[in-house]
Specification:
Elements: H1 7-24, E1 31-36, E2 45-47, E3 53-61, E4 64-65, E5 71-72, H2 76-80, E6 82-85, E7 94-96, E8 102-104, E9 114-120, H3 125-130, H4 140-155, E10 163-168, E11 171-176, H5 188-194
Antiparallel strand pairs: 1-9, 2-6, 3-4, 3-9, 5-6, 7-8, 10-11
Helix pairs in contact: 1-4, 4-5
Amino acid sequence: MGIPVSPRVEVLVTAASRAVAGYCGRVFERGLGLVEYPAGYGRPLLLLERPPVLAISGVWEGGNQVSADEYEIAGGLAEAGMLRRRRGVWRATVRSGGGVSGTLGDFEGSEDGLRVVYDGGYVTPGQWTLDGALVVTLPEDVQEAAVLTAVQLYRSRGVDAMVASESIGDWSVSYFAAKAEGKSPIPGAARALLAPYVLYRVS
């Protein structure tokens, strides 16, 4: 950001990081031994919440452990957070509600449904700060988007997002904007960098 480190700057960087994660609908930090009860739609793919998937410790379906030979996370599947069943489909835990949406099924979020224990996510600069033995794996474009967001937060401090201003030469006017459109904490350049990392969930 080109300014000295201070408690205020650290708060802005944390706020920017959270804004980026919220915009992308995901947690970027690496987690080990994550326990998840994914929604099953009676299809070969399961979508996990913390991509990329680094390792699978175990998968249980209806309380029974599924053999590791039955699924894979190789290649692009791991990066996308998808677990593919090699033969057949995963148990349906969501009732079809029409279109692409569904409703809570009898087994979703329970031991009788699907349970996956895995390692996933990226090593972030913050995690590296806490453990120098780690290697940062968070993509550079995500890091740059967080920096751009932090810079915008720093430059817009004290500015009311509901007030719009226009200037022409020596003349300027400020007025109340009914909608603070274009006042997202994440600037356009950052949104473009983050586009490949946004997760869209079916609910």
